[in-house]
Structures are given as C-alpha cells and as structure tokens.
TrEMBL record:
Residues 6-283 form the Protein kinase domain. The keyword Kinase applies. It comes from the Bacteria. InterPro entries: Kinase-like_dom_sf, Prot_kinase_dom, Protein_kinase_ATP_BS, Ser/Thr_kinase_AS. ATP binds at residue 35. Its EC number is 2.7.11.1. Keywords: ATP-binding, Kinase, Nucleotide-binding, Serine/threonine-protein kinase, Transferase. This is non-specific serine/threonine protein kinase. One of its GO terms (molecular function) is protein serine/threonine kinase activity. It is an enzyme of class 2 (transferase). It comes from Streptomyces olivochromogenes.
Amino acid sequence: MRFGAWVVEGELGRGGMGVVYAAVHSESGERRALKVIHAPAGADEEVVRFSREVRVCMALHHPHVVRVMGVERTGPENGALPMEAEPCCLVLELCEGGSLADRVRRDGPLPVRQALEFFDGVLAGLGHVHQEHGFVHRDIKPHNILLAFGSDGRTTAKLADFGLAKAYDSAGLSGLTRTGAVMGTPAFMPRAQLINYKYATPEVDVWSTAASLYHVLTGSTPRNLPPGWDPWLAVATSPVVPAGKRGVSLPPGLGEVLDHALSDEPDGGFQTAEALRAALNGS
C-alpha cells in the first residue's frame, strides 16, 4: 500500500485516532511512522482545522517527545479505502521499539534501574513541553510512551501524541461534541482529571506519568479495576493501592515517591514534572 510517496512496510498499531504504519519515502528513503486518520465524509473543514492545530504540535522539539514531521491529505494508491474516507496522514518520527505497554506485556515488569532511566527522560520531555509550550497531554499511559533505538545502541523513551488527541477532539473528528466530554484512559487517569477534564492542568500529566511508571515496575495499574466494574466509577471512588503491596520488590524510597505522586488529595502529589523527576532521582 502507498500513501502518496510513502510506501507502507507494515502496521504498527491502532488507536482511537486511526491506524499507524511504518513507511519509507520512495524518493528520499527516509523511514517514518504514518498515522492515518479516516475523516468522515464532508469533514473537510474539520480536517483543515485539525491540520492547522497539528502544525502547532510540530513546534515541539525535544529528544524525549516523538516528533511530528508534517500532515498530508492523500489517499492510498491501491484503492484500499472508500473514496468518502479520504485520510489525513500524520508523518511522525518512527520508534521501532514499540511502546512500554508492549514491553511489559511481553517481558513483564522492567528492572528498576532501566525503568527509572526511561522515565527520567520522559519527565524531562514532559517538563519542557509544559513549561515552554503550555500543552497538556491528558492521556499519558504506557501505550503512549514509545521506545526508539539510537545509533549508539541505546534505547530512548519518548512521549507520543502530545497535543494530537486534543487537536483531534477539538476539530470535531472524534464525534465528541458534548460539553465536559471526558477523554483519556481510566486506568492511568487521576481523579482530578475526571472531575474537571475541560480545565486539565499539567499536574494531571504528572500523575499519569507516575501511574505509567507504577505499571512498568509492578505490571499492575494503580487502582484495582475488576472485570465488570465501571472504570470511571473506579477512578471516582477507588483508592490507589500502595506500590509496595503489588508483590514486587522496590526500594523503599521509590515506593514512597510513587505513593506520594499518586495521591488523589487536592494538595497531594507533585505539581510539576521536574519535582517528580527530582524525587525519583533522590529515591
């Protein structure tokens, strides 16, 4: 399959916004990720608005944030999609190591040292985007933390989809138009975000990053989410289980930092990514 000059090599994943492919440019030979969003018929105005907002995301330059290279309107040359579903293609930095969710699912919880190294970078990127650009991600989770292989052989963790989900929703492409609609993933969402999604502040991203680290270290989510339970009700009413009770050996100081970071109290937790990063470095 081709999208304009991009030749698809394989599918990387699927999500609420569309399908992600690994692709190579037929002329330059550059390898990138393509996120293909199937806009509904008659959504030209929404796609233009989305494209405009995506270009704001292209200003995010940090080694621990997945780069957005561009946005194109181009259909597949082999006619694999119906004409009324002409896609919008986001060209993104390719992270061939998959996500942290994939890694934990395949190999189990990560060693403490490796996990902390990954999240030191993630928090550096998160702090940069909060402070320099004022973006709030609102859906940080292990699935949105991708692993890239460097030329030096090192693996780097990078935040993905920063600002894209909000742009997608605000353009009307998600179909969620009601006031107060909640976006995000309950398993990694703080109670404060559920209560006041529209005015989410950087603190919700800090909480979700701590929740992602909790999962990477323990293999569990911070709250118990039994089958059959309403996950949103669990966010609203269920307490966070202390990290030390998940049956995984963690340094005491690290468990204490995680428990503090995942507080649901109005004055609890860490207010900034840099504060959590410093606490983890000192644990």
